[in-house]
Amino acid sequence: MKLITLLFVSAAISSLQAEPTKVKLWPEGAPGAKGTEDKDQPFINVWPAAKDKANGAAFVVCPGGGYGGLAADHEGVQVAKWFNGLGVSAFVLHYRLGSQGYHFPTQLIDVQRAIRHVRANAKEYGIDPNRIGIIGFSAGGHLTSMAATMFDEKPAGMTNDAIDQVSARPDVAAPTYPVISMIENYGHKGSRKNLLGPNDNDELARHVSTETRVTANTPPIFIFQTDEDTVVPAENAVAFYLACRKNKVPAELHIYRPGPHGVGLFLGDPVLGTWSMHLRDWLRNQGFLKPVKRTAINGKVTVNGQPVSWGSVIFTSDDPSAPVACARIMRGSFKLDEKTGPVVGKVKLTVSYSAADVPGLETADGTVTTKEQKPGAGEWIFDVTEGAKDVDLAVTRK
């Protein structure tokens, strides 16, 4: 079986990015399968990042569809290509559905297997086994939340081969306008019906209500939701976020006012289309896109010799995958710890400060932003050393 799997993986890696390669999660047959068709044999479509952009990170993508179908284009293919643009390899999961007679725990078995497969074959895929995330939409968001909270669960009927010995815990998770609760009145009844099937009962529904399953071991969470969503109301996303807060799981929640259910990336929309940029920034500053050495730093910022009253200093690497550090300036001073500090090495500086710090200066919004230490000097390049202390950043403005 290992040889068969490696052949599939090799084919995936050598394929053109324009067309994904389909890899069956169980080449010799999935557990509990009722047949041999695609609907019975879960698989991933592999979208490897281009070699000149690949940063070693990977995401499993779970399209939504109420556990009755799969929105595999705008919540699958489009998402995979977006990740490829960040240098992240993507694996779009086609899991088994309630509409085809498959009910819990089959879906949990499938998503755990997808994560395990990617991690077990990390070397062949050219990815870091410690940087595997998962994202899912709507019911796929529920599946994502199960992956993030139930990764240690060993469902009845799962296989027990070598791949199943690999960790199924994702390193980050992004449930997107997710179905979360199967017990509250804001839950999505269709997803519950399709997921639980004829075995539906309140005890089982509570078991898969992931707001009750969050623990301190849940990986960092990013959530996108819209307020106008009436199909899967925002209470689901909020409940999951609050459960993360209660368990001290790092979490970020973005709720936009406009937008119906199921918008996907919606990159053409000037408002909703920005949510994916928040996800990109979150992944970058988590160190997920590129693990780098960051350092604590403190210092002072002056303009024309006087302390900046209130502003910010941004440290940006040339590497678009590297974290960006931003420090708040108060009464001329700034300070960042090792977790939030800049990348060690050469960075570009951007300093913003109040126009009131320069007598007689008027600007449209009352602030000044500069990437130059003094006019005409070009980009401000600064060499960050480990444990940088008492750094003096002096801005000159005529």
Structure description:
With 398 residues, the chain is an alpha/beta fold. The protein is 23% helix and 24% strand. It contains 9 helices and 17 strands. It has helices spanning 2-14, 73-85, 106-120, 122-125, 139-149, 189-196, 202-207, 235-246, 275-285, and strands at 21-24, 43-47, 58-62, 89-94, 132-137, 172-176, 221-226, 251-256, 297-303, 306-307, 310-316, 325-330, 333-336, 345-354, 367-370, 381-384, 388-395. Strands 1-2-4-3-5-6-7-8 form an 8-stranded mixed β-sheet, sandwiched between helices. Strands 11, 12, 14, 15 and 16 form a 5-stranded antiparallel β-sheet that branches. α3 (106-120) packs across α5.
The number of helical runs is 9
The portion of residues assigned to helices is 10-25%
Number of beta strands: 17
Task: Describe the sheet with the most strands.
Answer: 8 strands, mixed
SSE layout:
Layout: H1 2-14, E1 21-24, E2 43-47, E3 58-62, H2 73-85, E4 89-94, H3 106-120, H4 122-125, E5 132-137, H5 139-149, E6 172-176, H6 189-196, H7 202-207, E7 221-226, H8 235-246, E8 251-256, H9 275-285, E9 297-303, E10 306-307, E11 310-316, E12 325-330, E13 333-336, E14 345-354, E15 367-370, E16 381-384, E17 388-395
Give the structure's gist in a few sentences.
23% of the residues lie in helices and 24% in strands. It has 398 residues and is of the alpha/beta class. The radius of gyration is 24 Å and the shape is elongated.
